[in-house]
Amino acid sequence: MSGEKSRRGFLEAALSGSALLAMVAVFYPIYKYITPPKLAEAKLSQLKLSFSRADIESEPKKAKYFKYGRSMGIIFLTETNELMALSATCTHLDCTVQHRPDLGIIWCSCHNGRYGMDGSNISGPPPRPLEPYQVKEVGETIFVSKGDS
Amino acid sequence: MSDKNLSSKMFDWVDSRFKISALVDYMGTKVVPEHSHSTFYYLGGISLFLFIVQVISGILLLMYYRPGADSAFESVQFIVSTVSFGWLVRAVHSWSANLMVFFVFLHMFTVYFTKAYRKPRELTWLSGMGLFGLSLLFGFSGYLLPWNELAFFATRVGTGMAGAVPVIGNDLLIIMRGGEEVTGATIGRFFGLHVAILPGLFTVLLSAHLIMVQRQGMSEPIDWVNKSDAEKKYMKFFPNFILRDVLVWLIVLNVIAVLATFFPDGIGVIHWPLGEKADSFAPPPAVIRPEWYFMFAFQALKMLPAHILFLEGEYFGIIFFSIGGLIWALVPFLDKKSAVDQKSKLFTAFGYFVLAFIIFMTLYGYMVE
Q1: Domain B39-228+235-276, classified CATH 2.30.30.40, yes or no
Q2: Which positions ≥6 away from B270 have C-beta within 8 Å?
Q3: Which chain B residue has its CA at the smallest distance from A37's CA?
Q4: Residue of B63, B64, B88 lying closest to A29 (CB–CB)
Q5: What is the pLDDT of residues A39-53, one digit of tens each?
Q6: Is B116 helix (H, G, I), strand (E, B) or coil?
Q7: pTM score, two decimals?
Q8: CB B60 to CB A37 under 8 A?
């Protein structure tokens, strides 16, 4: 009787164990498949902008956006006529920030986040400052680069 | 014990609202005839299982596939070269597609020769014919989507054939191609057809087909009318037949896994290498051929002379296949003997003729290459 029972138990364990393994064999590839592969990002040492200081000046908000690799940056003229560049992606929920020369801040319209001209988070929900870019002007041409490179 | 209480409570909850116990009782009384051709009863189920595999693997492919002349080929290349197990998902989708068409053919012919289409199952046969046609359209429309050389020329020839249909041919061709030529616009159309229109139609027709099968039960062999009840053997549908069904599905799944792993690009004439990107200015590859299940029609049309009587050869071929298909679809209504449970030698002979024609033309098509 007990031999019968343990045989049944063994069969049940073998069956459910192999069913489990079969499920793993099906769902593991599916899980790996739906996880998108990491794409190599071209490492930029610096970016030459397609516009000049004059183009930025002529904008009503004295600012323009640029694409740096896969991220977006904003370049603007400060009150002292200096060029500053910051990451344009708000650190709160990834909205795009804008230059507000009238308020003297970088402003995120989504949730009223405020940053200083240097990118520091002043008030509102943003948890971290905006990452700055280094700006270099050579004649008419503007180059931006990430601080670490 | 508490498990059982919970599940029976859940059942009671649903039953008190939807009165499903009648359905469950009905399932319990359902039986499947046992005889020398009982294996035929698994073929429809296998086709159904392969369709489910197609839906799942197709949804997975959709996560990375991007239709369009500039992105379709590149996205498939990305799937098979960069995405984890992407090659496997594409291989499963392609193998399962070919197996599905094969089992649908097998299912159709076994139903035909056992005359299971006879009264009262005329509509089940008709819905099955619809599903058969949709399966072929699935294959045809899916073939173009990788936008490679093979697909491009096969689609040009295939849609060109539609262009030979009398009267409406040219309009049909332009609607199918989205213009005069096979271009990125054609991908858009075939993509919409393949992932939205066909699955929708297929699901509705398949539901009707399955409901009819469940309602009427399996067809008994035609000579069982002369048998006494004692001579007839049956198996319970639930759980005996269902468990066998599940085992067969598991075997099919393993067959797909083995084929897809060891032959991700197919074998022999059943193959789908990604190859070169389609280029409308490049000359066609040396061998243009359709998928194996279109080979018989392709070969037959190729063999027709330019003119038959007062008709162009292609017109004649299309009329020939249309009439043949119509007779095949209407067999339950034409085969009057079957309605009174008698075997019609004429319709059996017609079936053998069709089968022989398809096999001969297919083999011949591959031999003359």
Answers
A1: no
A2: B98, B291, B292
A3: B83
A4: B88
A5: 776 677 888 888 888
A6: coil
A7: 0.85
A8: no
